[in-house]
Specification:
The protein is of the alpha/beta class. It is about 35% helix and about 15% strand. The protein folds into 2 domains: about 1-130; about 140-285, Rossmann fold (3-Layer(aba) Sandwich). The strands form 3 sheets. It has a 6-stranded parallel sheet, sandwiched between helices. Helix 10 packs across helix 11 (about 245-255). The chain is globular and about 55 Å long.
């Protein structure tokens, strides 16, 4: 059995699922996920239920039998015991792709972010099916999907929100400057003659005040954070992408399968010094 530890926002949850799903398929193992960490995680909610995933939730007994025993920090302080991990508990060592995981077999519990398509590219078709939105779009999203399909649509994602409001998050992730989007638009316009920009952001007021697009522009802000999967579907329907330093827009671009797709990504993904050369596929452009 393979079990993936699921935590973080929707984009991170998708990376964790994709890695475990692909590995289980590779070694022909049963695949399950553990989402119990969300009971004490205030930043995000468990969001994979809105996608067409097939993996069931592992029981705590199943997780413990493979991973070992976890104890909360409060319990550790009271009784003075540390977690006891089994050898089959596999924790990611770095952000860079590590091919050694591919040779692992038997019962495994994976914990990490696994932010590279190299972990799951051999199962890409199945993963795209797993990550289709489970629900039919409402009338407003259906209309937006039609307009996206009828033009040279470019999804532009501007991530601010917690990147700006939380000091620790800001120090680690950083916020992309205005000139990144200016450079990205200039690059897109080398290839696309008549683009229409679809803007996705958790801070639409800031975007309207600070970014200018010399082409038709549609601000998509009707779904909100509780329906981020709807924005993901809309982004994946666009023909081209300017992504933020965000796994959410990474997946919006990766799930899209349009001939001649152009994707622009930032050269520097984290404000902190992390090696992310395996994060951006070689076919995407960086600026």
């Amino acid at each position: 059995m393979i079990i993936s530890h699921i935590i973080g926002g929707l984009g991170n949850q998708m990376f964790q699922y994709a890695m475990g799903y692909a590995h289980a398929a590779r070694i022909k193992a049963v695949y399950k996920i553990n989402n119990s960490a969300f009971t004490t995680y205030p930043l995000h909610h468990y969001a994979l239920n809105d996608l067409s995933i097939t993996a069931p939730i592992a029981t705590e007994a199943e997780s413990t039998s493979i991973r070992g025993t976890l104890r909360t920090s409060l319990v550790r302080r009271i009784i003075g015991k540390k977690p006891t991990f089994n050898k089959n508990y596999i924790r990611e060592r770095a952000y860079t792709y590590d091919a050694s995981y591919r040779s692992m077999s038997g019962d495994l519990y994976f914990e990490g972010y696994w932010q590279s398509e190299k972990y799951f590219l051999d199962a890409a078709s199945s993963i795209r099916t797993e990550f289709t939105v489970r629900h039919e779009p409402n009338s407003q999203n259906a209309t937006t999907l039609q307009s996206i399909a009828a033009c040279e649509s470019v999804a532009v994602h501007v991530r601010r929100g917690d990147y700006v409001q939380n000091k620790k998050t800001l120090a680690f992730h950083g916020v992309l400057p205005v000139d990144y989007y200016q450079r990205a638009v200039r690059e897109i316009q080398k290839y696309i003659q008549h683009p229409t920009y679809y803007i996705f952001s958790d801070d639409p007021v800031w975007v309207r005040a600070n970014l200018r697009f010399v082409a038709p522009t549609v601000y998509v802000n009707h779904n909100g954070p509780k329906k981020d999967y709807e924005d993901l579907r809309l982004m994946a329907s666009c023909k081209h992408h300017i992504i933020a330093n965000s796994t959410f827009s990474w997946w919006g671009a990766w799930l899209a399968e349009h001939p001649g797709q152009k994707v622009i990504a930032p050269i520097q993904w984290f404000a902190s010094n992390q090696d992310t050369h395996d994060l951006i596929p070689d076919r995407w452009m960086r600026t």
